């Protein structure tokens, strides 16, 4: 019984630590544009193997991300875009593949490449990184069309300079990678292009992290971790007492 209690307490403490790490990550991204909180839970999982199923492990399991939309704030910056619900902006990840984000705080580098604030190239409807020539006025339409007035030209010369690749997908149809970007679930097809109004220009979506709720979760997880550690100490004390009694007989 002692080793069983030790195992349950140990796995429980480990799950509480992982839960605290998830909450800490959420709190660290309170000010991250378009960030969606990670959802975590602790579940009981029977330990498989030969013999009777007498061991149950407590483990932390990631349930996905919170699909609720964050608050929209107007910035007036023509390069800022706030994605509509279930709409995602396609970007190029570090390996050259396609990934998706709701962070619409875009910038232009020295070469005129459209980038996210985290340095990922933004992809166009043709699948290639978006490059914008020098301009004196820029506008991004609700469907992702980028229109510019070329530098030195009158306003009447506004022309299309590209189009953002915006796709339609439910949050549950995607999974977040270690780089914070979203990708289709294993074996799933890439999400289809979005139709109609997909974004709001001159605005950004704030993080949807509930600060008060996350702080309450952190306190609860901390108390549960302390309880598991106390159980480990108590089981160890019982084992020592049992050993002493046996040695006297």
From TrEMBL:
Q: Which GO terms describe its biological process?
A: bacterial-type flagellum-dependent swarming motility
Specify whether Metal-binding is a keyword of the entry: no
Q: Which UniProt keywords apply?
A: Bacterial flagellum, Cell projection, Cilium, Flagellum
- What name is this protein filed under? Flagellar basal-body rod protein FlgF
Please give the chief subcellular localization of this protein.
other
Q: Which residues form the Flagellar basal-body/hook protein C-terminal domain?
A: 201-244
Instruction: Keyword check for Zinc, yes or no.
Output: no
Q: Which domain of life is it from?
A: Bacteria
């Amino acid at each position: 019984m002692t080793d069983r209690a030790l195992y349950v307490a140990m796995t429980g403490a480990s799950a509480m630590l992982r839960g605290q790490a998830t909450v800490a990550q959420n709190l660290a991204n309170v000010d991250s544009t378009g960030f969606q909180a990670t959802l975590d839970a602790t579940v009981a999982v029977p330990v498989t193997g030969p013999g009777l199923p007498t061991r149950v492990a407590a483990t932390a399991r990631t349930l996905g991300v919170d699909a609720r939309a964050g608050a929209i704030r107007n910035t007036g910056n023509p390069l800022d875009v706030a994605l509509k619900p279930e709409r995602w902006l396609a970007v190029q990840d570090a390996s050259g593949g396609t990934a998706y984000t709701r962070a619409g705080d875009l910038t232009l580098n020295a070469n005129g490449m459209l980038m996210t604030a985290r340095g990922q190239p933004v992809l166009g409807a043709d699948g290639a990184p978006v490059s914008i020539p020098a301009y004196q006025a820029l506008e991004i339409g609700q469907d992702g069309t980028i229109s510019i007035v070329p530098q030195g030209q009158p306003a009447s010369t506004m022309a299309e300079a590209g189009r953002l690749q915006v796709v339609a997908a439910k949050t549950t149809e995607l999974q977040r990678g270690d780089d914070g970007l979203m990708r289709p679930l294993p074996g799933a097809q890439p999400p289809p292009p979005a139709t109609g109004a997909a974004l709001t220009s001159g605005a950004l979506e704030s993080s949807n992290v509930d600060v008060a709720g996350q702080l309450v979760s952190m306190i609860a997880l901390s108390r549960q971790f302390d309880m598991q550690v106390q159980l480990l100490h108590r089981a160890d004390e019982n084992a020592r007492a049992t050993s002493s009694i046996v040695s006297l007989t």
